[in-house]
Structure formats: C-alpha cells, structure tokens
Backbone:
C-alpha cells in the first residue's frame, strides 16, 4: 500500500457542485485541500444542452461571482430568468413572481450541472494549495483514535486528513462508513427530465404547474442556434412512479402532446429534443452533519424533492457556511477540524435545510389533495398571494435564497467593489 507523502489538512470526498465550491473556498484561505472524485475530469459542455440542469438562486450566484468561478462559465449557456409563474391545473389559482417586484434583475439562473462542475474544476486549477484528483473512487475510511486523523483509501492508495468532508452525494460512503444515519424516505415520486423545443419563446420565465399526480416544471434554457432564440426548455416532471413510467414509454409525439395538454397554450406546440431520464426521489436527512474531524455537505447531508429547485443551492450554502466557520477558527488559532467550528456549522445549516425539506413535503401533499375544500383553499390562497405584494415578495425572496443567516460570500460585495463585474 502506498502512503501519500504529505499529510493533507482537508480531504473532500466528492467533487460535484458542492464539494467543488467548498474546495475553492477553503483553498482561497490558503488551506491545503485534496478533492477525490470517482468521475472523470469535468469538461465545459458544447453543442446540445446536457440533461441535468439546476436553477441557481441569487445567493448561489453571488457565491460563484465572489469566488471568480462565474468567470469560467460560458455566458452563452447560462440562462437568467426574470419571472416565475406557478399555477394549479385544478383551478384558477396562479402566482406570477417578477424580479422587479423585489428590486432584482433576475430571480435565478439556469445552467447545466456539468457546466458548473467544469467551471469549478477550472477555477480549482488556479489555486496552488488545491489538489483535485479525478477517477479516484473512495472505498474505505477509518479514524485513528490516537492521532484523531482520518485515513481514506482508494485501491492501494491511502490519504490522511485532519478534516474529512463528505460531499459524495445522496448515497454518501462517508456518511455511511462514519455510521451516521440518513434515510432514505421514499417521497412517492419519480422525476422525469428532458429537453424540449417550444414554438413560442420562453421569455426568460420559469413555469411550474401543480397537478394532482405531481408538479411539472418548464425551465428556460439558453438559446440554441438550431432552435432559435429562447425556444429551448428543460422539463422536470415529477409524479407517481406508474404515471412517470407511462410518460417515458410514450412515443415522442404522444409525449409532446401530453406535455402540451398539461402546460396549456403558454408555449405553443412542443417537440421532444432529448432522451427522457427518470430519477426516483428518495429524501434523506443525516441525523448529524458533523462528527469528530468530519463534516457532511450537500446531498450527502440532505436530499429534498426537486420541486422548488433548491437542492444544490442548499448544498452551496452548506459549503460557504462550513468554509466561513473554518476561517473563523483559523483566525482564532484553532485547527480546521475545531469541534466548536463544526458544531456552529451544523447549527447554522441543519435547521434551515430541514425547514426547506418539510416545506417541499408540505407543497407536495397540498397539491395532491382532491378534497373540494382544500382545492378551494389553495386556489384562493394562490390568488391572495398573487395580489398581496409583501407576501409575494416574501416568497420570492425565499426562492432567491435571501435568508437571514447568509454567509458573507453569498452576498453582493460592498458598493464600489462591484464595478467591472459582469
Ligand atoms: C430531477 C432533479 C432535478 C433537480 N433540479 C434542481 C434544481 O433545479 N436546482 C437545485 O438547486 N437542485 C436541483 N436538484 C438537486 C441537485 O441535483 C442536487 O442537490 C445536487 O446535484 C447535489 O450536489 P452534490 O455536489 O452535493 O452531490 P452530487 O452532485 O451527487 O456529487 C457527488 C460527487 O461525489 C462523487 N462521488 C460519489 N461517491 C464517491 C466516492 N465513493 N469516491 C469518490 N467520489 C465519489 C461523484 O462522482 C460526484 O461528483 C435536482 C435533483 C433532481 C433529481
């Protein structure tokens, strides 16, 4: 067995969007960081849109801008959206959120997951204390009770770390091997994702229709030369497994017809452009985010229903808060695995993530209700929210990630420091 010559300070298992951002934030502080990821090195996408995309909130956008990661994105593949329309298929309730209502230019941004991973990887290459190793699948880990260090193994190679971070997604090996319980709980939904072309321009508006069988989101994608300006959307259609399996089996024309029937006339006739991929939605929540010398971030700590597009945004905030707490500990002369810093991280993130997970469960069950009084109430509620400016503003700010305990790096820089940013 070969032992790595340098004992690394911080070792992150998983270089997805969450692990990648955490690595950048820690290396910016001058800390020595190693990222191990089982997948090949991510490359900037070209041509057709990738199937897996994410909506990013304002807070996530500022995190990426403030770290310079945003500069590595291909601007022509990032789609901002300035409106969000949510309606109930089973009634007259509708809410239209607009960026101008909350004094912003955009409510969010849509981009491909692989695109963001590639930008993080490129930014990482500029940071001298960050070593990002691809194609390294971690098999085992163990903590040495005498030294307090974690030993992580992949095949015949061993790494040691003062702080081990699990950013290895929903099926986290780090979480499991550290003995932290984390679900899963079946949400009762599967999600189908695909790319479609629309006859009408999407108008930089994200749309979501709630149906009895589950929500359907149409997310505005970047303009593609073949499809024309603003005529590509990504869809996330969640629902009961039998219904989603039926949708996946349909031929492309019947699927497009079903889709259009569900959405109505907003975008005109639609055409399926891609394969249809289906993901079972299994919620998870780690019983604890930290242990001695160990922290979990992103999907390794929590997996929520994608209906409000918040999963990765919560993960990026986990990364920023953990990095902020480690920086605070360092300033006070304490190590990167300082138990007080880890406890503060858990306190600041776990409650907030749980709240979001519960809110998603609440929305899911509210819109599944067929009982007339509930349908009347939710439609009346939506119409009321739509007319009540301050309440609508509150919901819009939550969706944008404007929460009370934002880490400093997730906020716009002080006035004056913004000049020159794009
Ligand atoms: C259909 C769908 C739509 C979604 N839409 C949105 C959205 O619009 N907005 C949003 O915010 N969220 C969305 N989400 C959620 C979002 O995709 C996840 O929250 C996000 O991908 C989590 O990122 P992560 O970096 O924590 O984990 P992952 O993306 O799972 O990354 C984990 C990384 O760890 C690596 N890894 C795993 N195990 C090992 C190992 N043993 N050794 C080494 N490396 C390992 C993997 O290769 C991977 O790179 C959606 C989810 C689904 C299912």
Residues:
């Amino acid at each position: 067995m070969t032992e790595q010559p340098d004992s690394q300070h911080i070792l992150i298992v998983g270089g997805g969007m969450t692990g990648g951002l955490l690595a950048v934030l820690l290396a910016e502080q001058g800390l020595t960081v190693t990222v191990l990821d089982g997948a090949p090195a991510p490359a900037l996408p070209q041509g057709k849109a990738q199937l897996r995309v994410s909506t990013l909130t304002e807070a996530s956008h500022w995190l990426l801008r403030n770290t310079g990661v945003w500069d590595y994105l291909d601007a022509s593949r990032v789609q901002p959206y300035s409106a969000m329309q949510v309606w109930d298929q089973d009634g007259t309730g509708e809410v239209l959120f607009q960026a101008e209502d909350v004094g912003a230019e955009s409510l969010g941004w849509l981009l491909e997951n692989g695109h963001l991973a590639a930008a993080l990887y490129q930014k990482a290459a500029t940071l001298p204390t960050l070593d990002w190793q691809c194609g390294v699948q971690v098999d085992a880990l163990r903590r040495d009770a005498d030294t307090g260090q974690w030993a992580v193994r992949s095949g015949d190679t061993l790494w040691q770390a003062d702080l081990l971070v699990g950013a290895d997604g929903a099926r986290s090996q780090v979480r499991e091997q550290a003995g932290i319980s984390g679900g899963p709980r079946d949400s009762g939904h599967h999600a189908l994702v695909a790319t479609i072309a629309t006859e009408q321009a999407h108008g930089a508006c994200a749309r979501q229709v709630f149906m009895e069988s589950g929500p359907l989101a149409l997310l505005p994608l970047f303009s593609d030369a073949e499809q024309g300006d603003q005529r590509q959307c990504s869809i996330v259609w969640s629902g009961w497994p039998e219904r989603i399996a039926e949708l996946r089996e349909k031929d492309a024309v019947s699927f497009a017809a079903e889709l259009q029937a569900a959405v109505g006339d907003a975008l005109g006739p639609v055409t399926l452009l891609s394969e249809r991929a289906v993901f079972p939605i299994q919620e998870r929540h780690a019983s604890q985010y930290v242990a001695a010398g160990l922290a979990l971030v992103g999907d390794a700590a929590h997996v929520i229903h994608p209906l409000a597009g918040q999963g990765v945004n919560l993960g990026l905030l986990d990364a920023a808060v953990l990095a902020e707490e480690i920086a605070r500990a360092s300033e006070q002369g304490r190590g990167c695995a300082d138990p007080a810093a880890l406890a503060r991280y858990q306190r600041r993130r776990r409650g907030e993530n749980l709240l979001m997970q519960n809110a998603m469960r609440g929305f899911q069950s509210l819109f599944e209700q067929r009982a007339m009084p509930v349908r009347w109430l939710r439609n009346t509620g939506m119409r009321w929210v739509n007319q009540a400016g301050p309440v609508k503003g509150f919901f819009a700010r939550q969706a944008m990630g404007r929460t009370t305990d934002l880490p400093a790096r997730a906020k716009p820089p002080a006035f004056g420091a913004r000049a020159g940013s794009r």
Observations:
- The chain has two domains: 2-185+282-410, 188-277.
- Residues 13-19, 36-39, 54-55, 113, 137-138, 167-169, 173, 191, 193, 236, 279, 298-299, 306, 309-313, 315 surround flavin-adenine dinucleotide (CB under 6 Å).
- The domain at 188-277 is CATH 3.30.9.10 (D-Amino Acid Oxidase; Chain A, domain 2).
